[in-house]
């Protein structure tokens, strides 16, 4: 191993050790499951904002998005980023405060718990369905994070992908099981800073290597479709395709996913002062726009570097997901930045992965230990045993995710897009109707979740294959979101209205939110 790689490894080891130490220190604050899953609702506005966005963006920001931009041009990456930016802002604007007030009012610490209490589901049918969907979609989502870590170390140091992936998973599991939600949120805040530094350094040095942004755009502007938001371009085949109104709307539908992301919604529920959510919204929205913009440009810089032979020639977007790794390694090897700084950049990629994986693990673990074992199946446990069950759940889910991540050729972008669609369709419409439509009842909730989940699978694995060359080949989140919304409305209207007490609570929350 070269001296440069050793220094880079030292920087990454220091970073990983710091994350574990944070988990160990904050583990002392976990007195009960409310602390473990929601941090006792004591998050400050900055930690709330940045931990939410760091857990949101994941390795997709530093690996998936630049790779798509580099290999297929701007259309898919641009419209996806725009949809996410709008979705981020609207979610903070209309959902955050009301969800914080509502979950505090009914004393809910998880999303399935909120649904059950919002609709008076004493038989925990809603809890069971919601918890199962969380596990179904979070396990592959977490696996994509582990896969990103494996790609990072395998590409950088030439070590076994499997070993690198497993070691990364172990570190995430250790600090997550020790510190719970507070540790995850605190480390996410730190990781968001490291992610930002990584993006800025790679962009700045990469732009300098190709002698300015003028050269960057000169290298791609001659390809018809590469910088045209209404066309598409394949770097390897040279194929040009149209990107019309339907693909644009379909791709922007990524933004709908925010309304149903458990690991993001938990941040809204955990802030200490709901009146400070406005500050959180501004910080989060600005960071998302800037970070995604930089990631897009890094993709174009990467194309210039690839054409110059500075980084490898990638076969497809999946293999190109190591773009920032390859850029950081090259500029460190050639003395453009100290090797230790290169290590910090690469730690940023690791941070983007870990910040999402830890939040996903906690949300999935809470679904098993809290929603399934204790609430649905009625197993009574002491606070101490509940904490241990939560930690064991994290470990079990991690083991399953590791097995799913054993394939190094899996695409981070594609896995995340499917899981994102799943949560967006299953929970997104229900969150909105639960918060803003008093008439929504438990039968509408059940119908909405089931129809949204089924539509995701049918559209993804049947309709998009059978009708690949038609207008039906669109991102599955959009049709599934619409179907779920229709089912919620129809089943709520044809069945009995919610009890008077439920309606009274809804009105109280509405009044408190406006105050």
Structure description:
With 515 residues, the protein is mostly helical. The chain has a single domain (3-362, 389-411), classed as Sodium/glucose cotransporter (Up-down Bundle). Helix content is 76%, strand content 1%. It has 19 helices and two strands. It has helices at residues 3-26, 33-38, 45-72, 74-105, 111-118, 125-157, 161-209, 213-221, 245-252, 262-270, 277-307, 323-333, 339-376, 383-404, 412-426, 428-436, 442-466, 477-494, 500-514, and strands spanning 231-233, 240-242. A two-stranded antiparallel sheet has the order 1-2. A hairpin with a 6-residue loop joins strand 1 and strand 2. Helix 1 (3-26) packs across helix 7, helix 6 packs antiparallel against helix 15 (412-426) and helix 10 crosses helix 13 (339-376). The longest helix has 49 residues, at 161-209. The chain is globular.
Notable features of this structure?
515 residues, mainly alpha, Sodium/glucose cotransporter, two-stranded antiparallel sheet, 19 helices, 76% helix, globular
Helix content: over 70%
Mean of residue pLDDT values = 80
- Which strands sit side by side, in order, in the main sheet? 1-2
Strand content: under 5%
């Amino acid at each position: 191993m070269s001296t440069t790689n050793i220094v880079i490894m030292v920087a990454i080891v220091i970073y990983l050790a710091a994350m574990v130490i944070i988990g160990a220190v904050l583990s002392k604050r976990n007195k009960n499951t409310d602390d473990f899953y929601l941090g006792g609702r004591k998050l400050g506005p900055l930690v709330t904002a940045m931990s939410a966005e760091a857990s949101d963006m994941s390795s997709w920001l530093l690996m998936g998005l630049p790779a798509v931009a580099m290999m297929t041009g701007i259309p898919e990456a641009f419209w996806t980023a725009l949809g996410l930016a709008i979705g981020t802002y609207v979610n903070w604007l209309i959902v955050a405060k009301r969800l914080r007030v509502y979950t505090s009012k009914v004393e809910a610490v998880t999303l399935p718990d909120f649904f059950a209490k919002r609709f008076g589901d004493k038989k925990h049918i809603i809890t069971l369905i919601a918890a199962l969907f969380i596990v179904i979609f979070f396990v592959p989502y977490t696996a994509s994070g582990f896969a990103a870590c494996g790609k990072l170390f395998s590409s950088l140091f030439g070590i076994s992908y499997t070993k690198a992936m497993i070691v990364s998973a172990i570190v995430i599991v250790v600090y997550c099981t020790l510190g719970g939600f507070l540790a995850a949120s605190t480390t996410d805040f730190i990781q968001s800073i490291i992610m930002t530094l990584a993006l800025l350094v790679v962009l700045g040095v990469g732009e300098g290597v190709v002698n300015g942004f003028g050269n960057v755009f000169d290298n791609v502007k001659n390809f018809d479709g590469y910088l045209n938001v209404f066309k598409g371009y394949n770097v390897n085949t040279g194929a040009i395709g149209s990107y019309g109104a339907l693909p644009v709307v379909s791709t922007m539908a990524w933004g709908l996913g925010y309304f149903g992301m458990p690991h993001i919604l938990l941040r809204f529920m955990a802030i200490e002062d709901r009146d400070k959510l406005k500050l959180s919204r501004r910080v989060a929205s600005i960071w998302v726009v800037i970070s995604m913009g930089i990631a897009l440009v890094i993709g174009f810089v990467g194309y210039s570097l690839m054409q110059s032979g500075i980084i490898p020639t990638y076969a497809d977007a999946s293999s190109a997901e190591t773009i920032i790794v390859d850029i950081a390694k090259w500029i460190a090897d050639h003395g453009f930045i100290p090797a230790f700084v290169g290590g910090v950049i690469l730690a940023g990629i690791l941070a983007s992965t870990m910040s999402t994986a830890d939040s996903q693990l906690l949300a999935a673990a809470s679904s098993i230990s809290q929603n399934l074992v204790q609430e649905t199946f009625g197993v009574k446990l002491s606070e101490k045993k509940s904490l241990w069950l939560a930690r064991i759940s994290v470990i079990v889910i991690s083991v399953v995710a590791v097995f799913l991540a054993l394939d190094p050729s899996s695409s981070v972008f594609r896995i995340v897009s499917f899981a994102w669609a799943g949560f967006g369709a299953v929970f997104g419409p229900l969150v909105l109707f639960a918060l803003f439509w008093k008439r929504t009842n438990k039968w509408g909730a059940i119908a909405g979740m089931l129809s949204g989940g089924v539509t995701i699978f049918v559209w993804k694995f049947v309709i998009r294959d059978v009708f690949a060359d038609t207008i039906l080949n669109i991102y599955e989140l959009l049709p599934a979101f619409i179907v779920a919304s229709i089912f919620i409305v129809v089943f709520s209207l044809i069945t009995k209205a919610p009890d008077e007490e439920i309606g009274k609570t809804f009105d109280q929350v509405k009044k408190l939110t406006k105050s």
